[in-house]
Specification:
It contains 14 helices and five strands. With 253 residues, it is α/β, with parallel strands linked by helices. It has two domains: 1-156, TIM Barrel (Alpha-Beta Barrel); 183-247, Four Helix Bundle (Hemerythrin (Met), subunit A) (Up-down Bundle), CATH 1.20.120. The relative contact order is 0.08. GO terms for molecular function: flavin adenine dinucleotide binding; tRNA binding; tRNA dihydrouridine synthase activity.
Length: 253
């Protein structure tokens, strides 16, 4: 992990985050992810090993518990052990427990109930730490509510499924008065990157799959998704596929 952290820093990343929240079987078989909540000392060792070789922050993303180990005391002990043995001071808390068996990763993101008050309490009990909250946050209004209690908010699936939510973050959360880029211009700004990647042999579909939801809630969004889904994976697919899909949106605006 130390070697990987060094590579990440060399490539310009601002932070290394150790994910102690993923419950998938494949991840568990490699002895990482959410199962590491049961091995807090090992997590601390991993963090310390990375801290020793990089200058950028090394942080932890975790759940509030695993299986039957889901008491508030268990969560506090986990945080306390990691902090005391590694000096890690920045945690992102997914406000759900994880079941290591019986639920798929998708179900683990939906079925265990959210417990935001428990995460708020954690911030009160560890005021010296930078603590961010994650899980089920679908709007900037919700983010603002959480920021009354927490240092930060992580938006995961919603940012992926509805990327345009990010266009308003600077204005609404950081009081910056910069103009909001409209979604059409944001897509066009991707064109040089898409062309560059295509010239390297990257399949168009590997890029467009990540922007299928960018027009969510906008007329033409369905046509955009359909055209990209049906054509971007084809051999020889190029920027014209994206341009045509964008045209299907703009002609309905």
């Amino acid at each position: 992990m130390a070697q990987c952290a060094k590579i990440a820093q060399e490539r310009g990343y601002d932070e290394i985050n150790l994910n102690v929240g993923c419950p998938s079987d494949r991840v568990q078989n490699g002895r990482f992810g959410a199962c590491l909540m049961g091995e807090a000392a090992l997590v601390a060792d991993c963090i310390k090993a990375m801290q020793d070789v990089v200058d950028i922050p090394v942080t932890v993303k975790t759940r509030i518990g695993i299986d039957e180990q889901d008491s508030y005391e268990f969560l506090c002990d986990f945080i306390d052990t990691v902090v005391k043995n590694s000096n890690c001071d920045n945690f992102i808390i997914h406000a759900r427990k994880a079941w290591l068996s019986g639920l798929s990763p998708k179900e683990n993101r939906e079925i265990p109930p959210l417990d935001y008050p428990r995460v708020y309490q954690l911030k009160q009990d560890f005021p010296q730490l930078t603590l961010s909250i994650n899980g089920g946050i679908k709007s900037l209004e919700e983010a603002k509510q959480h920021l009354q209690y927490m240092d930060g908010v992580m938006v995961g699936r919603e940012a992926y499924q509805n990327p345009s939510i990010l266009a308003h973050v600077d204005c609404e959360l950081f009081d910056q008065t910069i103009p909001v880029t409209n979604t059409v211009d944001a897509v066009k700004a991707l064109y040089p990157y898409i062309e560059q990647e295509l010239s390297k042999g990257t399949y168009l579909g590997h890029i467009t799959r990540h922007i299928l939801g960018i027009f969510q809630g906008i007329p033409g969004a369905r046509q955009w998704r359909r055209h990209l889904s049906e054509n971007a994976h084809k051999p020889g697919a190029d920027i014209m596929i994206v341009e045509k899909a964008l045209e299907m949106v703009t002609e309905r605006m």
